[in-house]
Amino acid sequence: MTVEQAEVRVGVDIGGTFTDLLVFDLASGRFQPGKTLTTPDEPSRAVTEGLATVLADAGITPAAVRQIVHGTTLVTNAIIERKGAETALITTKGFRDAVEIGREHRYDMYDIFLELPEPLVPRRRRLELNERVLSDGEVLTPVDPDEVEALARQLAGDGIEAVAVALLHSYRNPEHERQVEAILNEYAPDLIVSTSSDVVPEIREYERTSTTIANVYVRPVVTRYLGQLEESLAEMGFAGSLFIMLSSGGICTVETARRYPIRLIESGPAAGAIAAAEYGRRIGMENVLSFDMGGTTAKACIIDDGEPMTTSDFEVSRVYRFKKGSGLPVKVPVIEMIEIGAGGGSTAWIDSLGLLKVGPESAGAQPGPVCYGQGGTQPTVTDADLVLGYLDPNYFLGGAMALDIQGAKEAIVREIAEPLGLDLLAAAWGIHQVVNENMAGAARIHAIEQGKDPRSYPLFAFGGAGPVHAFNVARILRSPRMVVPLGAGVTSTVGFLTAPLSFDFVRTFYGRLDDMDWAHVNGLFGEMEREGRSILDAAGVPKAEVTVQRSAEMRYVGQGHEIVVEIPQGELSDESIPELTQRFEREYQRLYERGAGDNPVESLSWRVVISGRRPELPLDRMRGEGDFVELVPDAQKGERRVYLPEDGKLAAVPVFDRYKLGPGARMTGPAILEERESTVVIGRNARLAVDDYLNVIVDMDA
To answer: Do 293 and 466 meet the contact criterion of CB atoms below 8 Å apart?
Structure first.
């Protein structure tokens, strides 16, 4: 039956290998997942083609869809691949090289061939303006309109598409940047302009300038893509609202995304963390380690008290993937996670020392793993999983995509087994276990850096490849439990449908708490809150549903870095100092297990997060009613020869239909649980049970 009038919402996540979709029909409470190969040459094509298929499967017309929430890797890819706009920078005279000098920090002290990240704007396009604002906001040298007009004509004549304006101390006084933007708009109206006082009005010149450049560098790319996507969706008959996922875990309107595209830098991965947090809250596991492994990368994120950890410091386009400081800094709110080049498409290779390595290079969607039969020649993690029996070559994507197991075997033998003197199974298991160790090691480091013990966190596993590898990753981490949701291959799309409309603001105003101008601080909070409420009001969020969270970046006087401390609501004054100090010291103690006694405390920046109501999803109805059987044996599809590391050989292992395992089902491993978008691999002697939300809960202690 075709649904014509129902309120239907759709989540769409474009990944490096697959584009995931999830349709939720409010009238029936039904969910319809979908998965299709990403189309790197034209990402919107995978969205529209995948959407048409999944809506047809659900019996829903595009006209019935009320809302689409979308996440994309477009911004990250444009920066990494240097496929943004022809961009220039206008900065204060004498500071054109600040983005190249950076922090003057060697991220690897002993690397004599150290490479530093190349700025997005070459030196010849970094232009200087003879103006100056002092650190307290006082104007020393005013802007000369004639000088700006000359720069505007020069930029237009040079074919520049986008301009970043980042003047000294504009976070304290933005008037000069506003004057420059107005003159550029008058004399070069085709230029796209971003000012640092609008994008990131925050102290630290290098980070502020780098972020502003990155924002305007991708604005034309994102604007074209979103315009193309809106047009394609409209041609399908979609007339609802399109929202975009932010890196901070909220969603925003298309117009906001066009203006601040740098805030989409971690759009897709953020949705996965939001989904893990939502499931954790529902099942009473508010502290979990989110583990999202797709076709290209794996992501790990600590979820504490039902919320993912966030940060405002991020790097993109690192010269060395895992070395902090080797990338371009971006000061935007992002969910704190670690991302490594370990996905189903990660390629296996042998280094100069004869050691087996996996990733970070990926076969992606094109040509993909060898077993996809699309021209890939280098063996990948997916090829190894297939050879080990963890995947069914005839049930990949529910049988929609047959896998070439013989091609996978030949590639592993040719590229890995023969050079290392191993047999086929040993080589395939080596690939599988190396990537597991890589992911577990990265997750362990991420947790420890946050002051957390990974052994105390259940592993919440999802993504197309996550459930295949999660059991062994959890065993390496010594996690107490493993949780795998139904529809794990598209779980990140649940994050899109449970994320609220939200936006973050920041203002820098430095001072010691015992000598703070509280009237000015209260004014900044009021300004940010009004701006946020205006954005949400324009997006149609009822005033009664808006919530406000406040925080500050604080440190002991004399320190070089800050920590984020939650700030109470209401007017701040000298009477607030004891509580603010106590909050700071409590958070400092949590992070570092020590304090600094009676040292005075200071604050640099003040932050506000404005959010709408979090949408509710009936996740317990993910598969509807009447699809389950009462006895576990009735859900068994058959047996398959699967590699068991304890035995060092293939053995017959029962294979179950994931969609028939209802609440209360219990079994002991080894077992394979299959669904269309992913496969759950359970090792020997582990005990598992299915809960009311159809999650598979695995007791690792068993």
So the answer is: yes
